[in-house]
Structures are given as C-alpha cells and as structure tokens.
Amino acid sequence: MLTKDKNDGSLLRELLSIWLDEAFTQHHIIKKPCYVEFEYLVYYPDKVTGSITDLDGIKVERFLLWYSVNEIRVDLPSSGNIYFQVGFINKKLDIKQFDTPRSCQDNELWRTISETGDFLV
C-alpha cells in the first residue's frame, strides 16, 4: 500500500490522505463531503475511489442534474488542457484552473439534493 498524507497535486485543500491498494486503485479521503466551484459545481463525497479512468464518487452539476465523472485525462506532453468524461460527454477545460487546490464549500441546498438522491443521474 502506497500512502500519501500531504496535499501535493490535489484538487482539494481538505484532502486528508491518498493511498493506492494492491489492485492499483486510488483512495482519496476528504474531511467531509463538499462542493467546489470550478467551471461547474462539483460534488466530492468523503471518499473517492477508482483509477483515473474508472472513478467512483465525483459528480458535476449541470442544468439542475448531477452526473458522475467517469474519467479524467491529460495529454502527454501537456497541451494545457484536462479532459473529463461524464457519461458519453467529453469536456475539455484549461488545466490552469486546477493549479491551486480549492477549498470546499458547504452548500445546504445541494447537500440535501445529494442525500435524498433527487436530480442525481
């Protein structure tokens, strides 16, 4: 098991730890479920698991619906973009907006929606 307790390279300031299990699945532990505003509102549960191409836990809000983020990709060498796959939709964003880890927001409305399952896809 490979463990990383520092927040180097994370998208969130509230990240507590990251570890890699024997099956090479990453586990990210966050202080609490939270919401972060990038180009879209993003929901992170307190535990995100998976590989970069098979994620479980991260959701993005668009038009009052929540969609699961399935995959995150970057070009090597870097093109300056990061790609997110949400279902069959691919979204390209400028990687610079991810340079600095963001702080979690506690959003009561969206927390209620995510806990009840309303509008989740």
UniProtKB/TrEMBL annotation:
User: Taxonomically, which superkingdom?
Assistant: Eukaryota
Q: Which PANTHER family match?
A: EXPRESSED PROTEIN, T31J12.3 PROTEIN-RELATED
Q: What is this protein called?
A: Uncharacterized protein
